[in-house]
TrEMBL record:
SUPFAM superfamilies per record: FAD-linked reductases, C-terminal domain, FAD/NAD(P)-binding domain
Pfam families given in the database record: FAD_binding_3
Essential cofactor(s): FAD
Keyword ATP-binding: no
Record-given protein name: FAD-binding protein
Domain FAD-binding: 6-346
Keywords: FAD, Flavoprotein, Monooxygenase, Oxidoreductase
Keyword set includes Ribonucleoprotein: no
Amino acid sequence: MRTNDPVLVIGAGLGGLTAAIALARAGLSVEVHEAASELRETGAGLTLGRGAQHVFRDLGIQREVAAIACPAGALPFLHYQNARLLMGAPDRGDGRADDGVSDIVRHCYRADLQTVLIAAAERLGVAIQTGRRLIGLEQNAGKVIARFADGSSASGSVLVGADGVRSAVRALLFPGDEPRYTNHLAYRFLVPADQAEPFMALGRSAIFIGPKRTFNRYTMAGGKVVNCAGLVETDEVVGEGWSISASRDEVARAFAGWHPDVLGLIEQAGPIIKWGLYDRTPLPRWSVGRVTLLGDAAHAMLPFLGAGAAMAIEDGWALARALQLEPEVETALARYEAARRPRTELLHAMSKRQGEVTQAINPDTFVPSTAPLSNEAVMGFNPVEAGV
């Protein structure tokens, strides 16, 4: 890209920070503008897909990432009542970090990963501004200007909307396009490992599947805590965010009749967050002039593949690579979209299909080969090797 003007990244989530790191390593100027007033710890556990870790290897930070993560094992799927193994293999790991060299899926705490990425960005001199809620943008042939609610503004060569499922950038580019409630909600909570220990005999990680329900649990933070997520198909309309709480009784009712390990973990739950799940209709394009989208802002998807974070991270790397390779901004953004839209649209559809398979009315009819997670070509994709 032939300019000294910075790339403006809106959003300091995983995709935005990855893009910032990759841009800075490529010698491009970059600024990150985050709406929150501070970069506080939010989030729960996440599955870190193999494609994301190939990106981190390319950026030189995979060992740091692996140090706060742990191998995910063979992702065992279990019958919701009797814990019969339906897919994968028992996970006998101890929850400790490895060296990050192996090409495997890992689990980590989102806040820990964000901390690693912030530190990497700051080492490269990336400015991260907080309290910058985007309210407007304008662009011409030479630059784009972002305007924020605090009265400030920023000018750059490109603006990247990495600001999540309710993206302000997407709303400005494509007004009237709202997130879709998917009639699913997630109950998310943590249990200290010593309290969870009586309910962990089936291994470090397990995914219980049953009628219109999924319960996923695994250790993280060096095995010190168990992350739990109960996904429920429902007619109840629920908002999203970290402000909606639920009681243990409500979650226990949602999983009545499930395996004793599931109910035992629910009994030990700390504060429970109730989160409505929303996705986005795939867009025919992500870019308008010098403005583009990445991550959930472009392609929010259901969590049944655990692929949302990885897609944002892959996007961030690919965008930076395209801007590095192409002298003209709009050509670079077209190249980025051409590389990323087919993959993210495929994962969007596969995530929905994975939910249909794993929340089947009768898990006794579950056929592993029908599960998108079994697709090695997709789940083992290396975005760095594929290039843009």
